[in-house]
Amino acid sequence: MRLMIVALSCLLLAACDGGGDPVNQALRDTAAANHAAQVKDGAVSGAPHAAHTAPGAPTAGDRAFAASEASMHEKMAAASGETVDQAYIAKMIAHHEGAVEMAEVALRDSRDPEIRRMAQAVVDAQTREIAEMRAWTPAAE
Questions:
Q1: Three-state DSSP class for 13?
Q2: Which of 8, 21, 76, 131 could cross-link with 94 by S-S, CB 3.0 to 4.6 Å?
Q3: Which residues contact 94 (CB under 8 A, 6 or more apart)?
Q4: Taking Cα atoms as reference points, which of 78, 66, 128 lies closest to residue 102?
Q5: What is the Rg, in whole angstroms, of the alpha carbon atoms belonging to the chain?
């Protein structure tokens, strides 16, 4: 479960690169170091949890995030705009809201202090960026 959350955090952070935001960079660095340590210690294998789940069956971790993932994808698909700029803002707001929802799942269910710290950093950063995007108005042409 921890590995999946770390990997998911890495994916979220990579997808939402803050353009040099030091919080995002610190989160990426920590996640990469944790993953490297797990690989070195043999904690990561080609088939983690294979003994616990049927092939292709959703894991407990997958199920925890299913609703927030589905909501994010639905909202992103529905978001639109007249211009590329407007569509980008609408879709990124939906994407960031999804990241916040996923981080809230981690905050609710994880007891790992590092995961909780990263999840809170995602909530803080993405909420700030959502406000920035909502405040954006198209440039006059």
A1: helix
A2: 76
A3: 72, 75, 76, 78, 79
A4: 66
A5: 17
